[in-house]
Amino acid sequence: MPQTMTAIAVRGGKGAAADLHPIQIETPAPRQGEILIRVRAAGVNRPDLLQRMGLYPPPAGAPETLGLEAAGEVAATGPGAVRWKVGDRVTALLGGGGYAEYARVDARHALPIPDGLDLTEAAALPETVFTVYANVFEHGALKAGETLLLHGATSGIGVAAIQMAKAAGAKVIATARGADKAEVARRLGADVAVDASAEDFVEAARAAGGADVVLDMVGGPYFARNIEALNLGGRLVHIAAQAGPTVEMNIMRVMQKRVVVTGSTLRPRDADEKARLAAAVEATAWPWIAAGRLRPVIDAVFPLAEAAGAHAHLEGGAHVGKVMLTA
Q1: Which of 41, 243, 263, 318 shows the greatest Cβ crowding within 10 Å of its Cβ?
Q2: Global pTM?
């Protein structure tokens, strides 16, 4: 094992995409219950952008290095990491550290790479699939025969949510900004695709029978409109607030429609909760991959040393699916 490795840091501790640059740091060693992964690919996600800007600090004990998901081979195992052996191909949910040549992770947060996926595709799974499973199927309690209204349909989360909801037997109403992106959502399996820049998604949802679950990453002005799009007893689940975290709530409408308003973040969950979620994802979503019903959508791949370009590309907003790094 090399004593040092290449990792990506932010000049000055926080800054713009252009402030990302490669440095040499000490290679981590796996601790009790951990494995060390030789990272071959890592996902680039919106929380990484926030952390780079100093707005989303890593939880206690997590690496300062960016990166919430990675795939590669097990390079070393710590005491108690009994499931894995050196050389196993894995993908893992990380608390940080994915933008590097090696990353250590709780062995329970790693999953086997599904047959038919390469390492880049596998690295695109954890952050998105764990997020969708926890929020749509656990907090949102989406069931077969119900309807999911999804905003941001062509984001990494969006393309996974469309496929996962359809695999579970639900109907999907997906919104995206622009006719081209709406058409992509339709090709991915959305039953109704709405160009949110030209159409009223509330009217579209009502015309389609209403939504039972809304997965929202917009916040702000979407809040009240989401309530109106929901059916009686609907669930509104928040995972981001790109248009602002402050909303105005008509509590009478929430009461009249018996709406449940909830939301969550993934990264701050404790290790045991992430292990529980990993097991649930493996049991539920991995068979969908094997059956060809869920497939990562990769928009662009950048070398690790060009992480600045990857962040700039994601911030540009033209992507469809995931932006990835390879090491």
Answers
A1: 41
A2: 0.96
